[in-house]
Amino acid sequence: MHLSSPSLLLLLTTLLHPTSSTAALLPATSPRDDVSGHRRPRAAPNSPSGNYAPSTVPCPSTKPTVRPANGLSPSETAWLKLRRSATIQPLKDFLHRIAIPDFDSDAYITANASAQPTIAIAISGGGYRALMNGAGFLAAADSRVTNATSKGGLGGLLQASTYLAGLSGGGWLVGSIYQNNFSSVETLRDGSPGSSVWQFSNSIFQGPKQSGFSIVNMADYWLDVADQVSDKRDAGYDTSVTDYWGRALSYQLINATDGGPAYTFSSIAQDKSFASGDTPFPILVADGRAPGTTIVSLNATVYEFNAYEMGSFDPTTYGFVPTQYIASNFSGGVIPAGGKCVEGFDQAGFVMGTSSSLFNQFLLNNISSADSDVPKFVVDAITDVLEILGENEDDIAQYMPNPFFGWNNASNPSATHMELDLVDGGEDLQNIPLHPLIQPMRGVDVIFAVDSSADTTYFWPNGTALRASYERSFSAIANGTLFPPVPDANTFINLNLNGRPSFFGCDIANFTLRAGQTAPPLLVYIPNAPYTAMSNVSTFTPSYPNAQRNDIIRNGWDSATQGNGTLDAQWPICVACAALSRSFSRTGTAVPKACADCFSSYCWNGTVDSTDHGVFEPTFKITNMTTAQATSSGARAVGGGPTAWGMMAMGLSALSVALW
Ligand SMILES: *[C@@H]1O[C@H](CO)[C@@H](O)[C@H](O)[C@H]1NC(C)=O
Ligand SMILES: *[C@@H]1O[C@H](CO)[C@@H](O)[C@H](O)[C@H]1NC(C)=O
Ligand SMILES: *[C@@H]1O[C@H](CO)[C@@H](O)[C@H](O)[C@H]1NC(C)=O
Ligand SMILES: *[C@@H]1O[C@H](CO)[C@@H](O)[C@H](O)[C@H]1NC(C)=O
Ligand SMILES: *[C@@H]1O[C@H](CO)[C@@H](O)[C@H](O)[C@H]1NC(C)=O
Ligand SMILES: *[C@@H]1O[C@H](CO)[C@@H](O)[C@H](O)[C@H]1NC(C)=O
Ligand SMILES: *[C@@H]1O[C@H](CO)[C@@H](O)[C@H](O)[C@H]1NC(C)=O
Ligand SMILES: *[C@@H]1O[C@H](CO)[C@@H](O)[C@H](O)[C@H]1NC(C)=O
Ligand SMILES: *[C@@H]1O[C@H](CO)[C@@H](O)[C@H](O)[C@H]1NC(C)=O
Ligand SMILES: *[C@@H]1O[C@H](CO)[C@@H](O)[C@H](O)[C@H]1NC(C)=O
Ligand SMILES: *[C@@H]1O[C@H](CO)[C@@H](O)[C@H](O)[C@H]1NC(C)=O
Ligand SMILES: CC(=O)N[C@H]1CO[C@H](CO)[C@@H](O)[C@@H]1O
Question: Model pTM greater than 0.85?
Answer without folding.
Answer: yes
